[in-house]
Design a protein that fits this description.
The complex is a heterodimer of chains A (78) and B (205). With 78 residues, chain A is mainly α. In chain A, 81% of the residues lie in helices and 0% in strands. With 205 residues, chain B is mostly helical. Chain B has a single domain (15-202), classed as Up-down Bundle (Four Helix Bundle (Hemerythrin (Met), subunit A)), CATH 1.20.120. In chain B, 80% of the residues lie in helices and 0% in strands. Chain B has helices spanning 14-45, 47-54, 59-84, 88-118, 126-130, 133-168, 178-202. The longest helix of chain B has 36 residues, at 133-168. Chain B starts with 13 loop residues before the first helix and ends with a helix. Classes of the chains: A mainly alpha (78), B mainly alpha (205).
């Protein structure tokens, strides 16, 4: 909980400094880590069956693939 | 002799119930994921417009809402642990706290959206139509994504209240609490979505 709250404030601090393109990456990485904490501890994934953990991981992999492929498509449009 | 067994035994499968909720959560993740994807593409196309539009949002309200949801996730987790330890009084108290925090979030949302409406900024308004494409896209996405998220908050509150009633009726007990656990999972999902929604909408520099 404390980690989640402190990460929230870290995110705000980081996004107020001008890091250009890196700001988004940093904010997303921190959000990702917060998400991991919620998934692992609040949603108990750390203590769940392997099946469930693999499924959750697969969903995120799927989503990452969709994002990457969409961006590749988008990048090559005229 | 006919075998009329009185089926007082109800089929119960905790693992299946939990898996069912997780499968539903996957569909929700992809739903919001798709919206995040749309947001990303348009943001890549209109970076300055998105940045300017995001300045219209109140970071303070966003932070308060983030903290509200994080604390509410903790309170619902405490409620679940309390039921597992047969501390039903604490469980009910924590559930009420979670719901109260959720309502506080909605009140904040009401003020946020209210301010926008007051300035003539709402889906389909004349002002929206007159905006530059990038600004228009940002606000359309803002209303749709936060609106859909708010709808999920309402659904989550309903699930939590049902859990509260079930504890009251003795249907959710220390050895049969899957309903509460699933409601808590759904609530954590709502929090998870907001964890990503907040920086992307409010904190783009």
């Amino acid at each position: 909980m404390l980690i989640l709250l402190s990460l929230t404030f870290v995110t705000i601090e980081i996004t107020s400094i001008h890091l250009g393109a890196f700001t988004v990456t940093a904010a997303l990485l921190i959000a990702g880590f917060k998400g991991y904490l919620v998934l692992a501890y609040f949603m108990h994934l750390k203590h769940e069956s392997t099946l469930l953990r693999v499924l959750v991981a697969l969903v995120f992999v799927l989503f990452a693939l969709i994002v990457v492929i969409t961006f590749i498509d988008y990048a090559f449009r005229s | 002799m006919s075998n009329h067994e009185n089926h007082t035994h109800v089929h119960r499968d905790d693992e299946a119930q939990k898996l069912g909720m997780w499968l539903f959560i996957f569909t929700e993740l992809l739903l919001f994921g798709g919206l995040f994807l749309v947001y990303s593409i348009f943001r890549a196309q209109y970076p300055e417009n998105f940045h300017e539009s995001s300045l219209e949002l109140s970071v303070t309200l966003g932070v308060i809402n983030t903290v509200i949801l994080l604390v509410s996730s903790m309170s619902v987790a405490i409620a679940l642990t309390a039921v597992q330890k047969s501390n039903y009084k604490l469980a009910k108290l924590m559930l009420l706290l979670t719901v109260a925090l959720a309502l506080a979030f909605m009140v904040n949302k009401y003020f946020e959206w209210g301010a926008k409406f007051h300035h003539g900024l709402y889906p389909g308004s004349e002002l929206m139509q007159l905006l530059d494409r990038g600004h228009h896209l940002y606000f359309s996405l803002y209303f749709f994504m936060t609106g859909l998220h708010a709808l999920h908050i309402i659904i989550g509150v309903i699930l939590l209240l049902i859990s509260y009633v079930k504890i009251n009726k003795g249907k959710v007990v220390s050895d049969n609490f899957m309903h509460l656990e699933n409601a808590a999972l759904y609530w954590h999902l709502v929090d998870l979505i907001w964890i990503f929604l907040f920086p992307l909408l409010y904190l783009i520099s």
